[in-house]
Specification:
This protein is mainly beta and 140 residues long. Helices cover 3% and strands 38% of the residues.
Length: 140
């Protein structure tokens, strides 16, 4: 990993062999993040498991009896399987699984799971085409 790197908790993230993250890697691991073997991240990538309610009353700060403040926090796990390349400035949201051998194009916001062996890109990220050969170069 190249610095700077930021983890919310750190203890909920596991990475496989051959993992690489370029600079500005940000991980909000409110719940488990599982990254497989040979997964590469470009610069400025973010993994966000943290979720918040759409209801403003549920998002509001609350007070305990002792006066301390807290908010409700929950999350959805992220799984990135083996041999994936996540290009620069990609954001992956909670509840997403990226299948084996995927390439996620630069600047994508991944809000839904991507099946194995696909090139996907965009905001929101969508499957563009299947990757049928190991050394195939995607057309952006």
């Amino acid at each position: 990993m190249q610095s700077p790197v930021q983890f919310d908790y750190g203890i909920f993230t596991t990475v496989g062999k051959g993992f690489y993250a370029n600079f500005n890697f940000t991980v909000l691991d409110t719940c488990p993040i599982t990254i497989g073997d040979n997964v590469f991240f470009g610069p400025n990538c973010s993994l966000y498991t943290a979720m918040h309610s759409l209801n403003p009353a549920e998002r509001a700060y609350r007070r305990r009896a002792d006066g301390s403040v807290y908010d409700l926090e929950y999350g959805k796990p992220i799984t990135i399987r083996n041999n994936c390349w996540i290009a620069g400035s990609v954001t992956i949201c909670g509840g997403v699984t990226v299948g084996d051998n995927c390439v996620i194009g630069a600047g994508s916001v991944v809000t839904r799971s991507i099946p194995a062996n696909f090139f996907a890109a965009g905001n929101p990220c969508r499957v563009i085409r299947e990757l049928t050969e190991v050394n195939e170069t995607p057309n952006y």
